[in-house]
């Protein structure tokens, strides 16, 4: 059996009931076969892959808090510190009822290669809890965040592990967590990113993942001789990534006609009204059913459906495994030319293969959504030098980083004989740097 297949089998055996983690490991290792086979003897001897798929540390803890009725609630908190070869652990905190150890491990594993691709010194980690902020009062969210940080603060720090937002963790949650960290540890340091602008946050971090996705999409289309201007786009999700992807797509001359949330989706043939979307989601924390009040000519549909709309470009920006084989078939049948992932692993393995086989340009999340974590690293730099850069400065650094990622993944794919396969290209480009650093640091 090949080394890659042996390690995939080992991961499935050692981590039962963690299908998302298995999926992420399979996707990465299978696409790295050519590099691994060329170094098989050395990698085997050093158990390089076995070390790569085993987190350096996994923390799981109780998070008790009191709800507005005086009832004690108990959630589970996680932080997986996956790999620190190239820098302090860095990655978001997901607050969603679906969170379990396997999901945090898949996200942490992906984060290793994504963070490497940014070219900045950040290792891979991820965390979160099965707490659901939806429908909770501000006081309840604060009680949860304070309890969560009371335990987590023992394991993180500006030079150790720097968490940030992800699904369900936005500016409000980061603020409550930062306040509690400072109170317990007595340190005013850049221990979290995505902070508010009055206490150490970076301009453009809020926009960064969505904007970065469009910078990469525009460059990738250009590499393939196609213009973004005038294209019709389907976006899924309506959270942080989806909102700012929609905003930047429209600024760059494309028209976004869909957004979605966990209960339904909107079709707006005239182009999504971003100001309305921000008011509904960022201010009112309401459902997309509200959208029709702002745009009477739009349609609201219950359930799933954005991938059945005829578009040129699809940008999945909601969550993992939200674009299935039948969605990929519908996109291809409707003439879609590119799928660029704003979310982490939104496309199933079968759907990815189908899109690639049918000539659709496919940019994997670890490259396409790396703008968020890259800008988090820029926030860390600003915190270290106790300075704040202008929006334009951060945004132009972000754009450069995304353009570089685009070229690096494209060049790596071509170098190894997989021209146009950006999944292989992104994985190889991310992997090479991590392996080099791990090898240089000895058996740790
Ligand atoms: N916020 C960031 O900087 C980054 C986020 N990501 C990824 O982007 C994705 C979205 O994250 P954010 O926008 O930050 O979260 P968010 O909490 O702001 O928004 C998540 C959106 O996805 C929708 N959603 C969640 N589960 C869904 C489901 N099962 N079906 C349909 N819609 C669903 C929610 O309704 C919401 O609109 C996630 O995969 C996250 O890991 C990736 C890189 C950075
Ligand atoms: O900004 C960060 O540190 C993390 C962003 C994130 O969670 C991700 O890239 O998936």
TrEMBL record:
GO molecular-function term, one example from the UniProt record: glutamate dehydrogenase (NADP+) activity
Record bears the keyword Nucleotide-binding: yes
Active site residues per record: 126
InterPro entries in alphabetical order: Aminoacid_DH-like_N_sf, Glu/Leu/Phe/Val/Trp_DH, Glu/Leu/Phe/Val/Trp_DH_C, Glu/Leu/Phe/Val/Trp_DH_dimer, Glu/Leu/Phe/Val_DH_AS, Glu_DH, Glu_Leu_Phe_Val_DH, NAD(P)-bd_dom_sf
Pfam family, one: ELFV_dehydrog_N
Domain Glutamate/phenylalanine/leucine/valine/L-tryptophan dehydrogenase C-terminal: 202-442
CDD domains: NAD_bind_2_Glu_DH
Residues involved in substrate binding: 90, 111, 114, 165, 376
GO CC, one annotated term: cytosol
Claim: NAD is one of the keywords in the record: yes
Binding annotation for NAD(+): 209, 240
Record keywords: NAD, Nucleotide-binding, Oxidoreductase
Feature type site, description Important for catalysis: 166
GO biological process, one term: glutamate biosynthetic process
Subunit structure: Homohexamer.
Family, as annotated: Belongs to the Glu/Leu/Phe/Val dehydrogenases family.
Name this protein carries in UniProt: Glutamate dehydrogenase
Organism: [Ruminococcus] lactaris ATCC 29176
